[in-house]
Amino acid sequence: MKWAKEIGPVVGAITLALGVGAIVTALTGYSVPQVFKYLALGAFGDWYQVAQTLTQATPILFTSLSFLVAFRAGLFNIGAEGQLYLGAFFAAWAGFSFKLPPVIHPVVCLLFGAAAGAVWGFIPGWLRAKRGANEFVTTMMLSYVAIKLTSWLVSPGGPYHGAHWANQTVRILTSAQFPRFMRGAQLSWGIIVAVLIAGIIWYLLFRTPRGYELRAVGQNPLAAEYGGINVTKNLILALTLAGALAGLGGAAEILGTHRRFIELFSPGYGWDGIAGGLIARAHPLGAILAAVLMGALRAGGQAIDRAGVAPADLAAVIQGLVILFVVAPELIRYFQRVVRRKKLGDIES
Amino acid sequence: MSAEAIRMEGIVKRFPGVVANAGIDFSLDWGEVHGLLGENGAGKTVLMCILYGLYQPDAGKIFIRGQETRVRSPHVAIGLGIGMVHQHFMLVPRLTVLENMAVGWEPKVGPLLDRRAMRRRIRALVEDYGLEVDPDARVEELSVGEQQRVEILKALYRGAEVLILDEPTAVLVEQEVEALFSTVRALKEQGKAVVFITHKLHEALEICDRITVLRKGKNVGTLEAKGATETQLAELMVGREVVFTVTPEPLESEGRVLLSVEDLSARDDRGVPAVRGVSLQVHDHEILGIAGVQGNGQKELLEAICGLRRPTKGRVRVGERELTGESPSRLATQGLVHIPEDRHLRGLILTFSVEENAILGQRRQPRFAVGPWAQKKRAIRAYAGELVQRFSVSVPSLTAPVRTLSGGNQQRLILARELSRAPQVIVAVQPTRGLDVGGMEFVWEQFLQARRNGAGILLVSMDLDEAMMLSDRIAVMYQGEIVAVLRRGEATKRELGLLMLRGTGEVG
């Protein structure tokens, strides 16, 4: 009931977006049935394709959680992409530098990834809370710093350049790798870790005093202060946690999918997280569905391209439409709320 | 032109979960001041927002000058000669009066603002209606009363023939109310029609020709003001007999000082000194009122006491303990609770549920949480349920966001939360602001009960009647200082008004 009310409009928006996508496809001269057929087949056609979808969904789930945790505290974490890269690099580093027993090794790698991302969230969090620097700008700037930094680390001449034919590190040890589910598909235990973490974040936000305080700061910082909640501390905490989650996403990518750090390996998972978090209406469990949707669009888009039915650009357009239709009303509502609060104050009688 | 300016028939407006207007008929004549009375949530403001085009009715008809009309937006309403002055002013503080009036309706010379033409028209309006205000002053420099005049001027400047005033006296002192009333009378003499929304009965009787009373979204009666009585109106409003005043019984203080403030100074948000060396003491069994025109440092003083603003100088002591600048939660554990001025801004988190709001200051107490990592959901629910029942807060459910509660019930929830912590000192700012008669009565009773139990109460109220009725002593604040402290019965309303406006009681 409560569920249906939340999900209904989202499903409607997706349907509408696919409808408009169909019109665009037709107008550009491609075959609508073909494009949609391959979109569906590419996303859910067989077990291999489902695995593809979920593989893509894994990092997106992490970055969606990253975005929504900050969003719940009233902050915009636009820098998940950079946090993801930094987490990925440090996880890879822990993966090829240490010799540890199997179960422990990936856990250590995840912690390294989380810590690196956390630092990259802490800095803008501190700047925002103590100095008032807009986190929108700082997270984005730091994101580019992280991307360039990791690129340099693995480029020829950089300290971790592992092979002469590509900008990447050496492989991580087998002990650090996430097991995969089926031969030939990259889907790994990363998805299980991601869903587990989504559950933990849900518990944290809605079942602990910490989460209560974090949400209170996001909803009404003045009332939070009045209730004795340390606003500064919670702003820092929220962005640090957001950074850690994106860092975990990067780590899971390395341990499960790539097994080494590769320069510019992410096709924009950090950015997908913004859409994912908003589609989920900032709900950690909703983020699981949102991430699968985003993953399906990516996997389906690749299939369209591969089948030669239409260029990948068209798939990107359809992806964009879905994001736009689902997210735009949410954003409009958000801004309307802000404007209305400013304009009318409280109409009471 | 017929004598009827506006007629609204069968207006229905539903919001999710609430019927704000359930088929209201309303009419307004030219040259009439029509009072709109009702409790909070009775639908007064909603009805007028519909007339002003801010909301679209779900059913019903609106006739303006006898013509059935759809008012699609405020812009249309303004074009039809309807103006509205909201409870919260909609002015740009940084701009001058003239510039504020021009927003949206600029007379132009080419691309430029024709200031000369505007100034001429404003002068004429100022003279016609006695709305004294300097067109070139910046709005942020004006008093609340003056800002209200700007709002009225703005409406008239845009050609308003019908003027809706939404609780215009809520923010004014006695003298300003008199000025407003003479303006309203001047408007009436010019043949304009005025809707006067209020819940102060004596005001309605004084200024209005007819009074319409709304209750629960229905029109329960339209009467001639002449011949109507306060009791009659109050019974219509509430649907039962009510008390308007409470009389605090004389109580002997034991002379214990519960709250002591020494030489306290603080700055306002812009960094300007707002509180200048204030000292005061609140004793057991005592209500100390602080009177003053808004913006004379009361807000900053209270925030400095309650740990929401860092004092630049001075000390705050609760009982024996010095607690200057301590956090609100620490103060609360030491027996000082705060009923904040703005329910929505400070007191509640509107999107949070009733339960969640019930534990705002106590979320980490062992009865509601195990460390920072687990909440005792069941205990929280039981506690919220108990509060709601004991203070008769009417809520749709404990998990409903408090946004869905009426203003009166929101205030009850805050009182329930804070007063059930058995405080020694209660610091309350405008605790009855925007409440209806029933709601006020409830708040007053709660305070008197606390006083009976020995608590000391520091009460800031913009409503002089209220401050005078409840307070054992009244301190008048003017420009950041306390200029006088008077015992109950020592001062008249007029004297207090003068003290508030000028800082001295001498007529001059």
Question: Mind explaining what this structure looks like?
Answer:
- The complex is a heterodimer of chains A (349) and B (508).
- Chain A has helices spanning 2-27, 32-44, 47-72, 80-97, 104-131, 135-154, 190-207, 209-219, 221-226, 231-258, 269-279, 284-307, 312-344.
- Chain A has 13 helices and no strands.
- Helix content of chain A is 75%, strand content 0%.
- Chain A has one domain (2-344): ABC transporter involved in vitamin B12 uptake, BtuC, CATH 1.10.3470.
- With 349 residues, chain A is mostly helical.
- The mean pLDDT of chain B is 87.
- A 6-stranded mixed beta sheet of chain B has the order 6-9-10-3-11-12, with helices on both faces. Chain B has a 6-stranded mixed beta sheet with strand order 18-21-22-15-23-24, with helices on both faces.
- By secondary structure, chain B is of the alpha/beta class.
- The longest helix of chain B has 16 residues, at 174-189.
- Chain B folds into 2 domains: 4-238, 3-Layer(aba) Sandwich (Rossmann fold), CATH 3.40.50; 257-350 and 421-502, P-loop containing nucleotide triphosphate hydrolases (Rossmann fold), CATH 3.40.50.
- Chain A binds chain B through residues 207-210, 212-213, 215-216, 219-220, 222-228, 343-349, and chain B through 38, 40-46, 49, 54, 86-88, 90, 166-167, 197, 308, 327-330, 332, 338, 340, 344-352, 356, 360-361, 363-364, 368-369, 371-375, 377, 406-407, 434.
Distance between the termini of chain A: 31 Å
CATH top-level class of the largest domain in chain B: Alpha Beta
Principal-axes geometry of chain B comes out as globular
N-C termini distance of chain B: 48 Å
Mean pLDDT of chain B: 87
Encode the helix/strand succession of chain A as letters.
HHHHHHHHHHHHH
Largest interface: A-B, 24 and 50 residues
Number of strands of chain A: 0
Integer tally of domains of chain A: 1
User: What's the pLDDT, averaged over the residues of chain A?
Assistant: 90
Q: Give the total of domains of chain B.
A: 2
Give the strand content of chain B. Answer: 25-35%
Binned, the helix content of chain B reads 25-40%
Number of strands of chain B: 24
